[in-house]
Amino acid sequence: MDRLAPVRFSVSELPMAVKNGAGGNKHQVETMIAGVAVFDYDRDGWPDIYVSNGATVPGLEKADPSFLNRLSRNNRDGTFTT
């Protein structure tokens, strides 16, 4: 059996903030603000990060660019480009 290299993690900021438009009315959707997927989007062997962002409440509209979803592609050096 081949030995796999250990997985190592380090802190790296992504240039985005998750936003859900919560107004304090305690709508159920305010508790489920976003989702994250780590996968090899461009099939280059390096994991990329996709963040699905929230929307305004209660209309669930992406009212401005701050609500847009983001794909961050791995630069293969510990950084990502969005």
Q: Radius of gyration in whole Å, from Cα?
A: 16 Å
Helix-strand makeup class: mainly beta
The residue fraction in helices comes out at: under 10%
Shape: elongated
Strand adjacency order, main sheet: 1-2-3-4
Please give a structural write-up.
The protein has 82 residues and is mainly β. 0% of the residues lie in helices and 21% in strands. The protein has no helices and 4 strands. It has strands at residues 35-39, 48-52, 70-74, 80-81. It has a 4-stranded antiparallel sheet, with no helix packed on it. It is elongated. The model has no long low-confidence stretch (mean pLDDT 84).
List the helices and strands and how they pair.
Layout: E1 35-39, E2 48-52, E3 70-74, E4 80-81
Antiparallel strand pairs: 1-2, 2-3, 3-4
Brief descriptors of the model:
elongated; 4 strands; four-stranded antiparallel beta sheet; mainly beta; 82 residues
What's a concise summary of this model?
The chain is mostly beta strands and 82 residues long.
